[in-house]
Model the fold of this input.
Amino acid sequence: MPEVLTREVPRLAATEVPKTLVEALDPAWLSIVLARSVKGVETVEVIRTVATKVRFAVEFEDGERSAYCLKGLLDVDEATARGGPTCVLESDFYGRIAPLADCTVPECIVTVIDRERQQAVTVMRDLIVQGAVFCSALESFTPDDAVLSLGQIARLHARSDVLAQFDWIRPRLSQLAEMTYVTPETLQELLDGPRGDGLPSQVRDAPRLVAALKSLAARDVQRPQFLVHGDAHAGNVFRWNGGMGLIDWQLLQRGGWALDVAYHINAVLPPEVAEAEERRLLGEYLKMMRGHGLAMPDEDEAWLQYREAAIYGYYLWSITRRVDPPIIVEFVDRLGKAVARHGSHSLLHA
Done:
């Protein structure tokens, strides 16, 4: 069984959250954060999506070198900075949940959180230097790969008992269903674009999709609540030491297990493979969860919840804009075809 990468509780550094990449890589700031005198910093790689991830190497005054990865909202405009609460949520995951969880996640060294401004950065060991390989959002898994990644999701879900301790982990699906910044008109424009090509018209109907999401949220909150990753596509999975691990905890939430499982299976597998393998993979997940000692629904009820929950991942990618278009198109296609195949709208009476 793969070794877990982190178990120690990261430090919470009492210093300002940097706003720019230059500030984040400043040796004086890093000396405070890492609690060691930093002599020099070398930038290895900068990846900018909504948040910035920067891999860098540090040389300490005593001559030792270490490799790190820092993630946060750096050099962003005011609108993007409003997403800071998701960075706080991710830092809180690493600082408070990860030491209790059994899934494989990056080793977090320190978090820096400004709760008043709702901004945060997380400093982790560089996984690539440790031998990890990040999966691509456009990489199709094999069914055997999906069994391994579902095993990580099951390990996360199995620690849902921690929800009683942490009321700041919210039912994000309910919040998503009530948000207003993406209007049905805007959503329809997006679905009428290239991302919707190849999908049947009933799946590209924005008002119907919004209604289905609201119906799913109303049902989901009445079901047993699990510790849910919330964004479990292949780009948030890494391979390490013969197994897999999970990254990107900005959509961490409490919700039904099927939100992760239906999203994950249909995002990581091509539609024809998902159609052929999903019932078996769902059975593997349920067996793993029962092996962890959790009571799960029977196969028929689980299949129903799985089919309904396909709406969640499809909606997430339908409203996505700040990601490379080929990734958006691929995920909307995979997840939209799952929604059509399972008749998710009809199941949700939308």
User: Anything to note?
Assistant: The chain has a mean pLDDT of 94. The first strand starts at residue 11 and ends at 12. The first helix runs from residue 21 to 24.
